[in-house]
Design goal:
- By secondary structure, the chain is mainly beta.
- The chain is built from one helix and twelve strands, in the order ββββββββββββα.
- Strands 3, 4, 5, 6, 7 and 8 form a six-stranded mixed β-sheet that branches. Strands 2-1-9 form a three-stranded antiparallel β-sheet, with no helix packed on it.
- Strand 11 and strand 12 form a beta hairpin.
- The model has no long low-confidence stretch (mean pLDDT 88).
Length: 152
């Protein structure tokens, strides 16, 4: 947190049940993917790099593709430099993508409630948010594991 007691983060809706909160500095870009299919691609090309896409909502009712525009969103995450998977992307499902300020006094820590590939969970304004373990996810992808294909 900053000296003022709040931090600016991005809320990523990964599924109808999974909301991540990620610091803005971890994001490379929000990419609009033109598509005719309902599921995100396994991989995208981003700035000359092939980037694996994780979809935590494979078996979910929250849509990935917007039928009006024929597009879906993925968020490119900047990984740690010395890992085999330098970047990865997460499919955005639903309409809760947002930037927010986290204020310590509004956060209720929820130890033990976090999902796979999450380091912590908390409640704020009636919603439960996960703080992803981005390094664990990056390492899993680098070793060939597809985290989004299994239950969170």
């Amino acid at each position: 947190m900053s000296e003022s007691g709040s931090a600016c983060c991005v809320i990523l809706p990964c599924s109808s049940e999974l909301l991540w909160v990620v610091p803005q500095r971890c994001l490379g870009e929000i990419v609009t993917v033109p598509t005719e299919v309902e599921l995100p691609p396994d991989i995208i090309e981003w700035r000359g790099e092939l980037v694996p896409v994780v979809d935590f909502g494979v078996q979910d009712s929250a849509p990935w593709r917007d039928p009006r525009g024929g597009t879906g969103l993925v968020v490119v995450i900047l990984g740690q430099r010395d890992e085999s998977c330098r970047f990865f992307a997460v499919a955005v499902r639903g309409s809760n993508l947002a930037v927010c300020k986290l204020a310590e006094e509004e956060i209720e820590d929820l130890p033990g409630l976090h999902s796979n590939y999450a380091a912590a969970a908390f409640r704020m304004n009636g919603n439960v948010y996960q703080v992803p373990d981005l390094l664990a996810l990056q390492r899993a992808l680098g070793s060939g594991v597809r985290p989004g294909q299994c239950a969170t």
